[in-house]
Amino acid sequence: MQPIHITYLNRIDIEAAALTDQEILAAIEQSLGMQGRGETSIEPRVHLEPRAGVEGHFNVLRGWIGGEIDAAGVKVVGDFVDNYKQGLPSEFGVLTLFDPRIGAPRAIMDASGITDMRTGAVTAIGAKYLARKNSKILGHIGARGTAYWNVRLLDSLFDFDEIRVHSRRPESRNAFAERLGKDLGKKIEVTEDWRTCVEGADIVVEASRLSKPEPMLKTDWIKPGAFVVPYGTMSAVELSLTDIMSKLVVDDWGQCKGGKFGSLRAHVEAGKLSEQTLHAELGQIVAGLKPGRQSEEETILFWHRGLSLSDIALGHAFLKKAKGKGLGQTLRYA
């Protein structure tokens, strides 16, 4: 048997590869288009809750992308809300890529940063097709890792006049705003409450970290014509939120219709979000198979649970760029 080798990229390698905002967005948009055209395969994520009394669980995501990427992938990411008490990020992830022709592993890489980037990129690509082109006010709830890339990549597309942020802990939201202000070169408004952050915003992103479902974001605060992205693990929205929407869009209906977690879980169970009320998956819109925003008056909701396809596409892009820069380690597998 010929030797089989694996490329290993740790977090330092991922940071050194330094994909640009445009490269991140391009990789995710390409993968969404491929999903819409049926050039991928995806299985709904599964969860592992290892022990009682711990605010955390593991997500396991699986999928395959064809085309020039032609890779199967599995990502395991731990989501542990209280990690900040130990000075740790809430999420740690590992992505493995496999050759789909023979099943051999190709790469193992740190996926913590990849998870944050691909989540922000899916939010931004959603806004590209579903938000009003002249959106100038962003209201963002949450300050966890994915939050940074939500704001950064959205701002790269819209160049907001006003960015408002809020999270539960003052030290967290203040540090978040300071980092964003430094990196984006603009003033970030820190709000003391949800309403001030959300009300009147053109784009609303809810990425809260609640320990149990609680309707913190009120439907009445949503501006007509706004684009709303709720994706917290625990729901923070009212059941009435979907009632004011002109279009309901998801990343993958197979993932959204099942499982116990997710911001619109109650809406699925109540029948407010169903195959009948769903307008489209985002990939169908990116592929041109279904329309995105069609008027300034439409109020549109996009719920994304997180796609293994996004992880695989971005992991492939990092792997390609890292090899070009001589980064990573080659490990003998067999």
UniProtKB/TrEMBL annotation:
InterPro entries recorded: NAD(P)-bd_dom_sf, ODC_Mu_crystall, ODC_N
Superkingdom, natural source: Bacteria
SUPFAM superfamilies in the record: NAD(P)-binding Rossmann-fold domains
Membership in a protein family: Belongs to the ornithine cyclodeaminase/mu-crystallin family.
Protein name: Ornithine cyclodeaminase
Organism: Labrys miyagiensis
Gene of this entry: ocd
